[in-house]
UniProtKB/TrEMBL annotation:
GO terms for molecular function: 5-amino-6-(5-phosphoribosylamino)uracil reductase activity. Residues 111-170 form the Bacterial bifunctional deaminase-reductase C-terminal domain. The lineage of its organism: Bacteria, Bacillati, Actinomycetota, Actinomycetes, Micromonosporales. Pfam families: RibD_C. It comes from Spirilliplanes yamanashiensis. This is Bacterial bifunctional deaminase-reductase C-terminal domain-containing protein. GO terms for biological process: riboflavin biosynthetic process. It comes from the Bacteria. SUPFAM superfamilies: Dihydrofolate reductase-like. InterPro entries: DHFR-like_dom_sf, RibDG_C.
Length: 193
């Protein structure tokens, strides 16, 4: 089974978006570098960030997100982002009207079912869980192996929390990766079992 990784860019005070669901300056590090991170060159980072992020992106087999993210992105027009093979959407609602059933998106009810489906699809590749409410639920269910954060130098004060509405303590190991990029600090923690 693939490792389950909770991931997002995050403000120093722990938010993945402002109160209006906008990332604001959280993604400055993704457009301010000299090295193309994606095939079309729209995402450009420092060499340090590239050396850390690109190998991670290449290992992702499936991304899990909530219906809110799916709706905000218009389902990425039926094409998973970043070359990922599949997206598992946690939702209590059916796919949108007119949704192409051949698109590599899987709509499931509940985080346990989402992780099981994602691991089946990913094989030995990584399962990435978008931070936020769904990510917090997956962590609370004890299904996250690793937490990755790209910490941007901004304080939002309020907004959408990295760990969603999680209401219990969860211990992480000491960070095993701490990398300073341009306009970002990359952190990786294993979840303590």
């Amino acid at each position: 089974m693939g490792t389950v990784v909770m991931y997002s860019s995050v403000s120093v005070d722990g938010f993945i978006a402002d109160a209006g669901d906008q990332p604001g300056p959280l993604f400055e590090w993704l457009v301010s570098g000299d090295v193309p991170l994606d095939a079309d060159g729209g995402v450009r980072v420092s060499q340090t960030s590239y050396d850390y992020v690109r190998p991670y992106w290449d290992r992702i087999g499936v991304t899990i997100c909530g219906r809110r993210v799916f709706d905000l992105t218009d389902g990425w027009d039926g094409k998973p982002p970043g070359g990922i093979a599949h997206v598992v959407v946690v939702t209590h609602r059916p796919p949108p009207d007119g949704w192409d059933p051949a698109a590599p998106f899987h709509f499931v009810d509940g985080v346990e079912a989402a992780v099981a489906r994602a691991q089946e699809l990913a094989g030995d590749r990584l399962v990435e869980v978008a931070a936020g409410d769904v990510g917090g639920q997956v962590l609370a269910a004890g299904l996250v192996d690793e937490v990755r954060m790209d910490v941007a130098p901004v304080v939002f004060g309020s907004g959408k929390r990295y760990f969603g509405s999680i209401d219990a303590q969860h211990l992480l190991e000491d960070p095993d990766v701490v990398i300073r990029g341009d306009r970002v600090l990359h952190l990786r923690y294993r979840v303590r079992r």
